[in-house]
Amino acid sequence: MTSRLNPYLNFRDSTREAMTFYQEVFGGELTVNSYGDFGMTESPDELHKVMHAQLETPAGFVLMCADVPNAMPLPEGSSISISLSGDDTDELRGYWEKLSEGGTVRQPLMEAPWGDSFGECTDRFGVMWLVNIAGAA
């Protein structure tokens, strides 16, 4: 098996909603397993929480995510962002439009000084996305 590096996001209770959203953005196959599915909690209010979710997209992206149990602290102040880049303008603009809808745009997707189109947004789940569309050669 080839080694891969995959973003793994953590939420308190919104993993299922977030991953369904990302599936709408990127397409692909979503697998979701709860703590209850694996008998990993005795707390009735955590049986439905997502222990592991994985989205594999037609473009070859893999995004993973979990709900952090109530007994564990939720990491705060993350300095992580996810970057999407390439030369398929329509595909990347489509991702941008969906990811930024309901979120906060820090840098509108527009031509950058280096000749590419670039934008930065935080989606409605608090995840920062950078989108870079290659300019003409």
UniProtKB/TrEMBL annotation:
Gene3D superfamilies: 2,3-Dihydroxybiphenyl 1,2-Dioxygenase, domain 1. This is VOC family protein. Residues 6-129 form the Glyoxalase/fosfomycin resistance/dioxygenase domain. InterPro entries: Glyas_Bleomycin-R_OHBP_Dase, Glyas_Fos-R_dOase_dom, PhnB-like. PANTHER family: PROTEIN YJDN, PROTEIN YJDN-RELATED. It comes from the Bacteria. It comes from Labedella populi.
